[in-house]
Design goal:
The complex is a heterodimer of chains A (about 120) and B (about 110). Chain A is mostly beta strands. In chain A, about 0% of the residues lie in helices and about 45% in strands. Chain B is an all-beta fold and about 110 residues long. Helices cover about 0% and strands about 55% of the residues of chain B. Classes of the chains: A mainly beta (about 120), B mainly beta (about 110).
């Protein structure tokens, strides 16, 4: 089974620029999550999709962050304009949300963003 | 919303000894508690999880215990080995429908001393 794919792996931008990250979940997984992991901290949920609908975006800074999941498969997370404090690893995860839920999430390798 | 506290932030043990990491959560509705291991520069990897209808779960050298009344759960690693050195995160969620994103603790840096 192929894992969660993310790109790019690394990105360096200047503050006030925009950036976009891409995620391709495991085939058949209806639920997709974006997490932000700042260095030295645990991941923090930004947004959760169920198919192409948003389930939870309560922690997404909507003044600068946006995300979409067209056709219920791939997803894009965008930051515009970026701030220094957005420097972090952005992790995508997917889940089939089966009733047993014995395996938890599968995370992608993440995109490491550095804002200078 | 849910809040997960994790202790200690750093734990150093001798190789072969046991390590215990503890977490507490605030939302009594949470009923899924996974533990993740993250090595430097890598993604978090699920190592064990427990659901609220189980008090303890074991997988070889790793075990997790859950006390729903006290709202705390712990990770136990026995016979520690150098490859156990990593950052460990506990998390909590309410799976089964609707918003079920994980709330993570701040992590424990486990150091195995040779």
């Amino acid at each position: 089974e192929a894992g969660v794919a993310q790109s790019p792996r690394y990105k360096i931008i200047e503050k006030r620029q925009s950036v976009a990250f891409w995620c391709n979940p495991i085939s058949g997984h209806a639920t997709l999550y974006w997490y932000q992991q700042i260095l030295g901290q645990g991941p923090k949920l930004l947004i959760q999709f169920q198919n192409n609908g948003v389930v939870d975006d309560s922690q997404l800074p909507k003044d600068r962050f946006s995300a979409e999941r067209l056709k219920g498969v791939d997803s894009t997370l965008k930051i515009q304009p970026a701030k220094l404090e957005d420097s972090a690893v952005y992790l995508c995860a997917s889940s089939s949300r089966s009733a047993s839920r014995t395996y938890g999430y599968t995370f992608g390798s993440g995109t490491r963003l550095t804002v200078v | 919303g849910e809040n997960v506290e994790q202790h200690p932030s750093t734990l150093s043990v001798q190789e072969g000894d046991s390590a215990v990491i503890k977490c507490t959560y605030s939302d009594s509705a949470s009923n899924y508690f996974p533990w993740y291991k993250q090595e430097l520069g890598k993604r978090p990897q699920l190592i064990i999880d427990i659901r609220s209808n189980v008090g303890e779960k074991k997988d070889q050298r790793i075990a997790v215990t859950l006390n729903k009344t006290a709202k705390h759960f712990s990770l136990h690693i026995t016979e520690t080995q150098p490859e156990d050195s990593a950052v460990y995160f506990c998390a909590a969620s309410i799976p089964g429908g609707g918003a079920d994103g994980l709330t993570f603790g701040k992590g424990t840096h486990l150091i195995i001393q040779p």
